[in-house]
Amino acid sequence: MARNKPQNIGQPGRFAYQGLDRLIHEKARLSILSSLAAHGDGLVFSDLKTLCALTDGNLSRQITQLQEAGLVEVWKGHKGNRPQTLVRLSAQGQKRFLEYLGVLEGVLHDASSTARRPTAAAAPANGLLA
Question: How confident is the model over 28-82, as pLDDT tens digits?
Fold first, then answer.
């Protein structure tokens, strides 16, 4: 049985979304970067922990990975007698996060334009499910 090639296939790899950076795309790190992007002056550890609903250990590990990749800057100090950690997007982090969002917008556009197309009630014309 011959398989019909879809029409208007377009560019090879069109839906590969290579710009979906694995480091950023992981849920906890995406939450952290989104929170930091919304708070340009940065966030203290406890506020970031609350916003992202992460444990101390998980947040600490994710921040370390983001810092090692150059996406965030971390300052440790004291406020009163209490240690305090401030985390902020680096210039490189902001650039990479915006690039990531651009790719994600493409994913959303592709998915939503496909979802809006009417679907045929009959079986596919290529006969694969016959």
Answer: 999 999 999 999 999 999 999 999 999 999 999 999 999 999 999 999 999 888 8
| Dist CA 118 CA 122 (whole Å) | 12
Q: Which two tokens stand for residue 13?
A: 């790899």
As beta bridge partners, residue 51 has none
- The type of residue at 6 is P
Q: In what order do the strands lie in the sheet with 43-44?
A: 43-44, 82-89, 72-79
Which residue's entry shows tokens 């995406």? 30
Nearest residue to 30 (alpha-carbon basis) of 72, 92, 84, 85? 72
Q: What is the pTM of this model?
A: 0.77
Q: Are 103 and 17 in contact (CB under 8 A)?
A: yes
In whole angstroms, give the CA distance from residue 98 to residue 105: 10
- For 84, the token pair is 């305090």
Question: What is the set of domains in the chain, with CATH numbers?
Answer: 22-111 (1.10.10.10)
